[in-house]
Design goal:
By secondary structure, the protein is mainly α. It has helices at residues 18-31, 45-51, 55-71, 88-98, 103-107, 110-121, 132-135, 137-146, 160-177, 217-225, 244-252, 255-266, 271-298, 300-329; strands spanning 4-11, 37-44, 80-83, 152-154, 185-187. The strands form two sheets. The protein has a three-stranded parallel β-sheet with strand order 1-2-3. A two-stranded parallel sheet has the order 4-5. The two termini are 39 Å apart. The protein binds tryptophan.
Length: 335
């Protein structure tokens, strides 16, 4: 059986939080253990430039993200783990993709459209603060995917449209130049939890409601204590399903522990007690990775070595493939 190629990128514009871990990092590391799959995971630092023009933050975020994956034990002998910018063939391919992608397709990209809508609402020029990077963001993403002919792309719901655009762009290229690309598809795990944040909305950097993954113990406890709850007193039954505390519990607990906590909610566990138990549960699981993480960020050279090995592996594929693609479009040396 042909191995399925899974590929996903993480934009380097922040420090990982519990939602990133539960929704993306943990399932990706699990998935990479499957021998029937090959996995390509990368730090999307070129994508970061679209949203973030703070050089220190881009760099710090890349380091934090790389250290996080390694701290949780991603097997980099098995998965190909690399920095997007260390594979320059992706940028070359991006240009080729720009030359087949229809502008009309990109007009429909929701990140761009949302900006235009907001501008219009504010009475600004529709393209106010829209860079070409933002506009062609899905083209770079298509290049990420197609460079490795990945066919399974695990993403959150908000990214499905981009994977469909990659498929569309690949189809156009194949139609013009011959079959070079497999058509990728998005893999969205409906069970994949979208964690709620401190205020009960989706945990997201843009809402400023996150719990960073590797807070030191004291701060982790403090953050958990800040989770918004209702005013029910100890002894009063509490609804588990609408509770952020319970949802977080479920994301880290075994099914047995989850059932037990559900009962405690029905029995009126005090919020303070539920939060205390939640802290203990999460802290227990993060303790060791946290130590490894702290060691790793103190040793950036070690991380760098891992990434350079990853880039080497990636380029074993991308260098010959970009050569064939160039030939396919008529760019080659005269002989
Ligand atoms: N755009 C994705 C995000 O913001 C990150 C990303 C970049 C990506 N390139 C990709 C995801 C390729 C999957 C495949 O979440």
């Amino acid at each position: 059986m042909k191995k399925q190629k899974y590929l996903t990128g993480i934009t380097c514009t922040g420090i990982p939080h519990l939602g990133n871990y539960v929704g993306a990092i943990r399932p990706a590391i699990e998935s990479s253990k499957d021998d029937n799959k090959s996995s390509f995971y990368f730090m999307a630092d070129l994508h970061a430039l679209i949203k973030c023009q703070d050089p220190a933050l881009v760099n710090e975020s890349s380091l934090a993200i790389a250290a996080t994956w390694l701290a949780f034990g991603l097997d980099t002998d098995k998965a190909v783990f690399y920095r997007q910018s260390d594979v320059p063939e992706i940028s070359e391919l991006c240009w080729m993709m720009n030359c087949v992608a229809a502008k009309g397709l990109l007009n429909r990209a929701h990140a761009y459209k949302a900006t235009v809508d907001a501008n219009t609402q504010d009475g600004n020029d529709p393209d106010y603060a829209v860079t070409m990077g933002l506009y062609s963001y899905p083209v770079l993403m298509a290049a990420d995917i197609l460079m490795f002919n990945a066919n399974k792309i695990p993403v959150g719901r908000d990214q499905i449209q981009h994977v469909e655009m990659a498929r569309d762009i690949a189809g156009r290229f194949n139609h013009i130049y011959g079959e070079m690309f497999e058509l990728p598809e998005a893999v969205v795990d409906d069970n994949m939890s979208v964690l709620k944040g401190l205020d009960g909305r989706k945990m997201s950097k843009s809402y400023n409601n996150t719990i960073p993954l590797f807070l030191e113990e004291k701060k982790l406890r403090k953050h958990i204590n800040k989770i918004k709850t209702n005013l029910l007193e100890p002894g009063e039954p509490k609804d588990a399903d609408s509770s952020t505390v319970f949802q977080l519990w479920e994301a880290f607990a075994t099914p047995e522990q989850t059932a037990a906590m559900r009962e405690e909610f029905a029995n009126g566990i005090a919020w303070g007690e539920a939060k205390k138990q939640l802290f203990e549960l999460i802290n227990e699981q993060l303790k060791e990775p946290r130590e490894r993480y702290n060691e790793l960020v103190q040793n950036p050279a070690e991380i760098e070595a891992v990434l350079q090995k990853g880039a080497e592996k990636a380029r074993e594929i991308s260098v010959p493939f970009i050569q064939s693609l160039k030939e396919a479009v008529g760019i080659k040396r005269f002989s």
